Amino acid sequence: MELQSIIDMDQNYFMNTYGSRTQVCFTHGEGMTLHATDGKTYMDLLGGIAVNALGHSHPALVNAITDQAKKIIHCSSLYYIEQQAKLAKLLVENSCADKVFFANSGAEANEGAIKLARLYFRKKDQPDRFEIITLEKSFHGRTLATLAATGQEKYQKNYSPLTPKFLSVPINDLDALRGAITDYTCAIMLEPIQGESGVNLTSIEYMHGVRELCDQYGILLIFDEVQCGLGRTGKLFGYQHYGIEPDIFTLAKALGGGFPIGALLAKNQFASSFEPGDHGSTFGGNPLACAAGLAALSVILDEKLVENSFTMGEYLISELVKVSKTSPVITDVRGKGLMIGIQLGSPIAKELTKKCFDAGFLVGSVGNDIVRLLPPLIITKSDIDTFIAFFSTILP
Ligand code: PLP
Questions:
Q1: What is the distance between the alpha carbons of residues 181 and 209, in angstroms, rounded to a whole number?
Q2: pTM value > 0.85
């Protein structure tokens, strides 16, 4: 179908929550490359916003999905599901968690985490501990509770009254966090590395301080690893950069390699608060989603994509730092692994993103002054060299 016909149909029938989109529609892809309706190809350095960790059409993922679809797509969690049990086992064996629950998205996994934290205290006869502290500039999802958890007014402003008892404090400010803790506090929820606000890192001292405060006051620590988890930052999980462990954490995005699935993971002590009837999902953890998750996670582990994310991330960041020495418009390059924000000193992020697109590179922008890169974890040195050679030519 011609691009213009797709645009016309979209404008007539699709709710306009995404505004005027980039003028392209992709038909297929392989590896780092996406092909558009007009035959033009693009190097994907955004990976569907940290989703396509294996790149496009990885044979192991495609085969797992097609094989599973031929057998059974969905039954219900009223019955035992082999793929669900296997994916839960693989996640537990590779993380600090003891138990897993599957959802369909990051927001849904976070909703589950919030419910679990509140339930934990309710079942300990402390029903007044329901308040959740999050960080400013965080992003936890678009449902009403996760919007309340999200520390960015722009997402919340039209949806009041928000779910009550969430408050946010500045990142890397332990005094602010300590000052926000009350007898009602049940959990602190944060992204080890913030994604949607343009790649903001928590410091090691801060994260140790947060863990200590949680232990001191008996507060649960929830990490939202929806974006930074599963190898994105050069470790399998973001928390592994800090030498501390969360009590509960969430995953989504890369978990299905592009197939929708989210997960809520917790240590036994907290996971056991969920008893029969306390939580559920019609689609969450169905055979097809879990077959995709099993394939995606197996590829991430077996093909050493975490290690590749680490080494390629270091290389990409160092090349960008080199570029910044000759282009003063870049005022900071921050990130870990392949989760990278390029801070600009002037509001030209959208212009740069457009120039990249026109030349066949997909990158993201956050606001007007941050370019964000979240490439598939399979990226090579030669891909990086190709991108850097172009990117360095478009900076003022
Ligand atoms: N949490 C984080 C850290 C995210 O980056 C996102 C999405 O960008 C979400 C939660 C929401 O995930 P989803 O869009 O799958 O609901």
A1: 13
A2: yes
